[in-house]
Amino acid sequence: MGILAEFSGPESLKAVAAELRQAGYARFEAYSPYPVHGLYEATGRRRTLLPWLVMLGGTAGCLAAILLQWWTNAVDYPYIISGKPPFSLPANVPIAFELLILFGALAAFGGVMVLCNLPEPYHPLFGCAEFRRASADAFFLSIDAADPLFDLKGTADLLRALGAASAEPYSRPQTERRVPGYVKATIALLLAAALAPPAYIAQVRFSRKSSPRLHLVLDMDFQPKYLPQQHSPLFADGRAMRPPVAGTIAAGAAIDDAHLLRGETGGQPAELFPMPVTMELMERGRREYDIFCATCHGLTGDGDGATSQVVVLEREEPKWIRPLSLHLPTVRSQPAGQLYQTIADGVRTMPSYASQIPVEDRWAIILYIRALQRSREGTLNDVPEELRKQLESIHDDATSYDDQN
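Structure (tokenized):
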């Protein structure tokens, strides 16, 4: 219940709102078909909490995204890819930004609904025929009966004295408005249907079943693709992995140096390296070997890498040739240029890595392979002179101690 008053224009509406606020009225609303500058201040409204709610929602979304990615990638299921760290803040910024926007938008939507007491299907003012013009060409002000200063006759007289064209009471209709039964049944049915998917997911996740899970998208679960090193009858060589087109060079990568580019000197595989041998080059070769070569040849070069074992033991590819040990005499005797050509052009079932490994990195890998090979047949003469003298001194001291005791 309350009183609805109509005014002639925005200025009079704003002036009356200010008068009512000064008189002590607090529960009143002003209605205008378009925004009126200064009306918000005239009614004495406090600044809304909505910006703070949006800020809190965005902050919560950002933190939730960072914590989720940290937990899944660095704690629950760490997965190392090419030596990259399990958790890196720059890599997680896109998801954090997306959840910041999502949670901020949800906070804005929910805040508007709560602060504006929505949804409100019905209000007593809807029963006033004059109030329908509030969104067209009329200016209204309503005072709720719950206001401490409200008096039906005195408040109406005050509004007329302040210039109201009319000041009529309004009240909620006496007829009871009930939600139809079919609406309640529909809402209950929708809620039950909404609970079915999460209930099914929980049942599948926590129950031990021998049957496979439900495949909703078969093309995603069973993709028609070949795995690495898999046999394919589509090509004459029986390999699914296709080598690059012969003779092609990446744009801007042309090198007019047969020794560096093709590993040849005088038309024969080169014996020497085309660049200075340094520890930096050796370390670079170790890193590239671990990335490209260790999966088949193993970390020590014995030909027992993870890919080799999986293909031989599990998939049993008919045309698969197990990688050779890099310590075999036939491999140790190969010139450096021949090893370079093997990496660049491929051999047997080993594909070409020319499109993946730059020229300098190929030579670095060969240098590291030479170090692996030499480590198996090293002698005391391979040790630097200063370190050899220290080792001999330690050996002599140990022998003298044994003789004395």
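Residues 258-382 form a domain with the Cytochrome Bc1 Complex; Chain D, domain 2 fold (CATH 1.10.760.10). The mean pLDDT is 82.
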